[in-house]
Amino acid sequence: QVQLVESGGGLVQAGGSLRLSCAASGRTSSIYAMGWFRQAPGKEREFVAATTWGGGSAYYADSVKGRFTISRDNAKNTVYLQMNSLKPEDTAVYYCAGRWSGGIYAGGIYAASGYNYWGQGTQVTVSS
Q: Which of 9, 38, 63, 65 maximizes the CB count within 10 A of its CB?
């Protein structure tokens, strides 16, 4: 059974940094990509960043380019999101998402429907 467990959220002042981690377990040899999404109160879940597991290509939302960096440690089956220069508008629950090979997906790597496994979410709050 696949599980994604996130850690690293918290409260930080504007301009500060946080690093989120997401550890995957279960059928990890079939990971195709892992990503991060976020959802603020009253808003839809939105794409933040993603990385492919084999080639390591990285994808970012325009709103976080230059501030956030996604990386992975294949040996630990863990994906990270380094968030720098945080802004109050980055406040949200951040979710780790996994796309496993062999699945049928309605969306691509930028869409929530492109993933079939999700973590429980971790709160990130940026104060002004």
A: 38
